[in-house]
């Protein structure tokens, strides 16, 4: 039974396209909560092309549910933002500056020492840490040695393969989730989850605590409205 954290990056993309404050990112986040979302996710990027750093402070001061901030902790500015705004959770994502969207998880073997240090820093401030990972049991095993609380499985390959062969698509995710459970790590997932592939994922992944969903959910809201869309995603995530 996973909780749904709505990623509102795309609301900010729309706002920024005209330079004003329409749509209002904070108002959208509060509406998501009112319609049942159990968390709000943002992924401020160094160029602030969608979520701006100021949005993060405004969200933290006003939302009632968990704030999850995603980003690359190798950027000094990101670390300062997280420490200053004190979200419930930080998700460490190894994206290069200017990348269009996330396309891989951390290599927790190669970067073990760095990840241990950064997890200790955030956890020392009472912030829950999750590390974004490809669905590879070796990466989960090594993540367990960093001190992280959770891992987030990067679901793009699941989403792409789902329509061809869903059993094959989900197999590495089940294997990774089992290793996470054995290691005592909490499990999150996200990227390209949608109304078609979410039910099967929630049904088959043991111990799934949270899904963060943005792109497809915000697109669906154009047709269905935000309230109905969130209701549908909640029904699939909390199976
Ligand atoms: C970490 C992750 O999975 C991404 O999906 C990300 O949060 C989305 O970022 P963009 O909205 O910038 O594509
Ligand atoms: N962590 C994944 C996320 O926040 C949203 O990804 P997407 O649904 O926008 O692909």
User: Roughly how many Å apart are the termini?
Assistant: 6 Å
Q: How would you sum up the major sheet?
A: 8 strands, parallel, barrel
Bound molecules: 1-deoxy-D-xylulose-5-phosphate, the ligand NCC(=O)COP(=O)(O)O
Query: From the coordinates shown, what is the CATH architecture?
Result: Alpha-Beta Barrel
**Content of β-strand:** 15-25%
Catalytic activity: 3-amino-2-oxopropyl phosphate + 1-deoxy-D-xylulose 5-phosphate = pyridoxine 5'-phosphate + phosphate + 2 H2O + H(+)
Protein name: Pyridoxine 5'-phosphate synthase
Subcellular location: Cytoplasm
GO molecular function: pyridoxine 5'-phosphate synthase activity
Descriptive terms for the model:
239 residues; single chain; TIM Barrel; binds the ligand NCC(=O)COP(=O)(O)O; globular; alpha/beta
Description:
The protein has 239 residues and is an alpha/beta fold. The chain has a single domain (3-237), classed as Alpha-Beta Barrel (TIM Barrel), CATH 3.20.20. The chain is 47% helix and 17% strand. It has eleven helices and eight strands. The protein has helices at residues 9-16, 25-34, 53-62, 76-85, 112-124, 137-144, 156-162, 166-183, 198-204, 215-224, 226-237, and strands spanning 3-7, 39-42, 66-71, 89-92, 128-133, 150-154, 186-190, 208-213. It has an eight-stranded parallel β-barrel, surrounded by eight helices. Strand 3 (66-71), helix 4 and strand 4 form a beta-alpha-beta unit. Helix 6 (137-144) runs parallel beside helix 8, helix 7 (156-162) runs antiparallel to helix 8 and helix 10 crosses helix 11. The radius of gyration is 17 Å and the shape is globular. 44% of the residues are buried. The model has no long low-confidence stretch (mean pLDDT 97). 1-deoxy-D-xylulose-5-phosphate binds next to loops. The ligand NCC(=O)COP(=O)(O)O is lined by residues 7, 41, 70, 190-193, 212-216.
């Amino acid at each position: 039974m996973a909780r749904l954290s709505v990623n509102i990056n795309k609301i900010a993309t729309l706002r920024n396209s005209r330079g004003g404050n329409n749509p209002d990112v904070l108002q959208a986040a509060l509406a998501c909560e009112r319609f049942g979302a159990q968390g709000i996710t943002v992924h401020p990027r160094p160029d602030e092309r969608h979520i701006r750093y100021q949005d993060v402070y405004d969200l933290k001061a006003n939302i009632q549910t968990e704030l999850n901030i995603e980003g690359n902790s190798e950027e000094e500015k990101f670390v300062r933002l997280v420490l200053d705004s004190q979200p419930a959770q930080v998700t460490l994502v190894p994206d290069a500056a200017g990348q269009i969207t996330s396309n891989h998880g951390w290599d927790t073997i190669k970067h073990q020492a760095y990840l241990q240090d950064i997890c200790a820093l955030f956890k020392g401030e009472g912030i829950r840490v999750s590390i974004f990972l490809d669905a590879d049991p070796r990466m989960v095993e090594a993540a367990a040695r960093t001190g992280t609380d959770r891992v987030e499985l990067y679901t793009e390959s699941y989403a792409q393969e789902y329509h061809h062969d869903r059993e094959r698509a989900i197999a590495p995710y089940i294997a990774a989730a089992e290793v996470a459970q054995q290691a005592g790590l909490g499990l999150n997932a996200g990227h390209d989850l949608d109304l078609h592939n979410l039910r099967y994922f929630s049904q088959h992944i043991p111990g799934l605590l949270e899904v963060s969903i943005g792109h497809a959910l915000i697109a669906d809201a154009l047709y269905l409205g935000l309230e109905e869309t969130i209701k549908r995603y909640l029904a699939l995530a909390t199976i």
